[in-house]
């Protein structure tokens, strides 16, 4: 008997076992049977959309009630809410639409073999939820097979319970197209729960004709996506755009990290407009043999970009001159640029840009006269190439004003070398606080409405959450990511928004996995250093632009056992960190000096200049005097030599820095302080009890496969054949 047929039979058997069957006069049980009353219009519309989607699927399933499909009946009339290329060439396109409890996919893949799709928290197939689909070349029958990735090797194994339901499948001369659906949470330990967190979408294509046999794939990859995020697209009305970009900036190969600032003058606008979105403009040309070349395969060193609004227009002549110039190396920028403190757009690697929700716009050209903006571009040039760069941001704006004037607030941990993450830690947490005093002083009486949040950190961050404290009680998280991927930065809508009152506290918490590092990681702009920030979009706009904290200098060094340095007391060290009116900026260091410092490079095992080091250089130069056992060591050497593998030590440090004293900064748009810099203890509040961990009610939990091994000898054979076959599905390996 042909293997093919056995598989088909098994798949049919499995297919019927799990998902709720369609009954003509009853709703599928995932739909709310009574639409809740007193909902907002938006919600009602969302509701009816959801119902409509379900209805279309169900009607479709009635019309095509069979498990196999021939080539002519493959089109469902679903409206796909999302569509993404999973690979660079567009060989694999995933479209999907979801209801409150289920998700329907359409997968179009350039193969006449099988196509595999996987869901996981990591970029590999270990423990992943996998689904394999193909269309038989001989009879046009489509199949889906629910599998999971082995924990120990790159191998797919068939699930005990099948949770993917085939809707249709079709292949033409070049492509295999399948539609299938599943529950978001199948209550099956072998399946991934599709939720709000970032999901690594794995894919693999089998060789032609690999229907049913499923040999090793010929191509594979992974792409991070958040499947359930709402889409905010530009309006249909035409938008204007303003390109804010550098021109032909040469990035020298010695600079591993560089940040560059330039002033831009707003376009001439007779009245107030609204910024409604932005996109990155990436134009980086590697310089080879002194000639900049366009090479789409080379990776741009642009790592992130922030566009700030500048408050001061006093000396228009000076600002005009700046706007016509090339800009400045970050640490060398004129001190007046510190007034460019209100972020307007924050882009980071992996983002395709953002459009704001329909009721919010960020004012542009408000003053009627000129305004100035500062673009800050962070380059991460660890590959040490010479690059000619003209990157920037395309700002989309409109004259038809939206309901609310929005603004961005930066919060989290102030970027400095005082943000230390010890090496070899599985889960090390740090926090930045936006204090009660600050929000009390700067927010309006009615508070503000938070719309969306961009959570930002670098490569070792695994979780970021934005907590909301009112009085002594923690409220539900404003935003949270439990599978953070620094290569995928897209802001997150806050469902139904969040009212944030005067006097409330914000806490940005980051959790890092530094097990791959041998040396402590310090805060900074380089991709090898770390950050912990949230950019919060809210309305109505206020004077508050930035609200950060960091460990006070004295507490910081004492936590690491240092009592005194040669030459500088803690107060003087603190002043260096806080100098130039902005704690983000240390005293300027010209490029030449950085060049001269090259001899330091070996010391940390790093290569190339870290252009703006946020105090890392200072850490190397501070020499310990007290206590005597550390005397004559630089603080950096001391940090590097601490016994980090000792859990009692790192737990103590984590606790001291997390729950200890915090120096808080409350910065207004005009670069003045909303409240003076304060040193305060960690707020005292009752933590939110996380109900998520409690057992959810699972409707399908009891539905298992008919116990094939017990029914008949024939069935036993089918089942074991399937297992053997599935064990042979080799390698859906993400690079
Ligand atoms: C084959 O199917 C794919 C995906 O549906 C489609 O993009 C392509 O145009 C089709 N090719 C032909 C020749 O019809
Ligand atoms: C930037 O450099 C490119 C390539 O060298 C050149 O073609 C272009 O004219 C330059 N643009 C400006 C504004 O100098
Ligand atoms: C840097 O390291 C290399 C080899 O690792 C060594 O040969 C060189 O002397 C070192 N330079 C300094 C300044 O320490
Ligand atoms: C520290 O350095 C000073 C000057 O270089 C030296 O006199 C002193 O003996 C050193 N102390 C220790 C403990 O190594
Ligand atoms: C925190 O607040 C609780 C209840 O208000 C109080 O019992 C406790 O002593 C406080 N802790 C600190 C460290 O202030
Ligand atoms: C947690 O669950 C309890 C009982 O199940 C419920 O009363 C409470 O409101 C829930 N809390 C939150 C924050 O959802």
From TrEMBL:
Q: Name one GO molecular function term.
A: dopamine beta-monooxygenase activity
Give me the stretches of Polar residues compositional bias. 26-48
Specify the signal sequence span: 1-17
* Entry's family note: Belongs to the copper type II ascorbate-dependent monooxygenase family.
Cross-referenced CDD domains: DOMON_DOH (cd09631)
Name the keywords, alphabetized.
Disulfide bond, Glycoprotein, Signal
Location of the region described as Disordered in the Swiss-Prot/TrEMBL record: 24-48
Biological process terms in GO annotation:
dopamine catabolic process; norepinephrine biosynthetic process; octopamine biosynthetic process
Q: Which GO terms describe its cellular component?
A: extracellular space; secretory granule membrane
The record's annotation in InterPro entries points to:
Cu2_ascorb_mOase-like_C (IPR014784), Cu2_ascorb_mOase_N (IPR000323), Cu2_ascorb_mOase_N_sf (IPR036939), Cu2_monoox_C (IPR024548), DBH-like (IPR000945), DOH_DOMON (IPR045266), DOMON_domain (IPR005018), PHM/PNGase_F_dom_sf (IPR008977)
Taxonomic lineage is: Eukaryota, Metazoa, Ecdysozoa, Arthropoda, Hexapoda
Top-level taxon: Eukaryota
Q: Where is the DOMON domain?
A: 90-206
Which PROSITE patterns would you find in this protein's record? DOMON
Write down the Pfam families for this protein, in alphabetical order. Cu2_monoox_C, Cu2_monooxygen, DOMON
Query: Has keyword Glycoprotein?
Result: yes
What name does this protein carry? DOMON domain-containing protein
